[in-house]
Write a structure and sequence with these properties.
There is one protein chain. The protein has about 280 residues and is an alpha+beta fold. About 35% of the residues lie in helices and about 15% in strands. It has eight helices and nine strands. A seven-stranded mixed sheet has the order 3-4-7-6-5-8-9. A two-stranded antiparallel ribbon has the order 1-2. α1 crosses α3. It holds the Pfam family MULE. InterPro entries: MULE_transposase_dom. This is MULE transposase domain-containing protein.
Length: about 280
């Protein structure tokens, strides 16, 4: 078979610098199948290599969330490379995709997310430093019909729940930790040292009341399974959001003192004052 798909297409089988030394075949070049060293005037395609230092730099930039094209430009300036020694974009993409897939567990498919959750689902054999997924997560595409709610924690972090007996249990949501735009619910404890020991982190597709009604019992179930005790909440600090407030009243009861973050108090007071100014007619 001779064609574009043939493995022997355009292969050089004759050596033009090692002629046969016999009188009969003096003008005939030797073949590569004969013993000895052979050379050819044809040069192979030069492919720049990614050294260990370059790969280490690429991994750090992947953790920062940079794209392969920008990573390639940065390593060009960082290692003073030339156009001939700079790795191609395809080489950089290969390293980036491998690192994100195997080390950062990055995936855009629901099937891969389900497999990852099953792999890290909590059981009694997991140690205090091993991460795990809280029980019975909602695995969907983030739509209203198929919501997403996955909680992550560790045994040592879950044990921070016992500090809520003396310090406020703090619940907050942020949109700055998820690249897909999903809110991240952070549950922790605000202690006297102005620190924030985290208990669990939830990736959710919304901030409606059912999400918080699902998140708090999951933390309590994990706490009871790991420590064998029942959590006691004396203070609860949450936003002024209706969903969080309703869950705080219904789920924690009147025995728990409900607090509000000072930042949210000032923000809501300023918002309310500006609305009243716009509503007041000018005479």
């Amino acid at each position: 078979m001779y064609g574009r798909n043939c493995n022997w297409n355009l292969k050089v089988l004759l050596c033009d610098q090692a002629p046969v030394e016999t009188s009969r075949h003096r003008d005939i070049c030797t073949t590569v199948f004969e013993a000895g060293n052979h050379s050819s005037t044809l040069t192979g395609v030069f492919r720049p290599k990614l050294t260990r230092m370059i790969k280490r730099s690429v991994r750090k930039k992947v953790q920062e969330g940079l794209k392969p094209a920008r990573i390639r430009n940065k390593i060009f300036n960082e290692f003073a490379l030339t156009s001939a020694t700079t790795p191609s974009l395809r080489q950089v993409q290969s390293v980036v995709n491998w690192y994100k897939k195997t080390k950062l567990y990055s995936s855009d498919t629901v099937e891969d997310l389900q497999a990852l959750i099953q792999q890290y689902r909590w059981h009694h054999g997991r140690g205090g430093s091993q991460p795990f997924v809280l029980q019975d997560p909602w695995i969907g595409d983030g739509s209203v019909q198929r919501p997403l709610l996955v909680g992550f924690s560790r045994g040592g972090l879950i044990c921070n729940r016992r500090h809520a007996e003396a310090y406020p249990l703090h619940v907050d949501a942020t949109f700055k930790l998820s690249k897909k735009g999903f809110p991240v619910i952070v549950v922790g404890v605000s202690d006297a040292n102005r620190a924030f020991p985290v208990i669990a982190v939830f990736i959710a597709s919304g901030l409606r009341q059912p999400f918080f009604e699902k998140a708090f019992p999951d933390i309590n179930t994990a706490y009871q399974a790991i420590t064998g005790g029942t959590p006691i909440d004396k203070y609860l600090m949450a936003d002024t959001d209706d969903a969080q407030h309703n869950v705080a009243v219904e789920g924690f009861g009147l025995e728990t003192t409900h607090l509000m973050c000072y930042f949210h108090v000032i923000a809501n007071a300023k918002k309310n004052a500006s609305m009243k100014e716009r509503a007041t007619p000018d005479y």
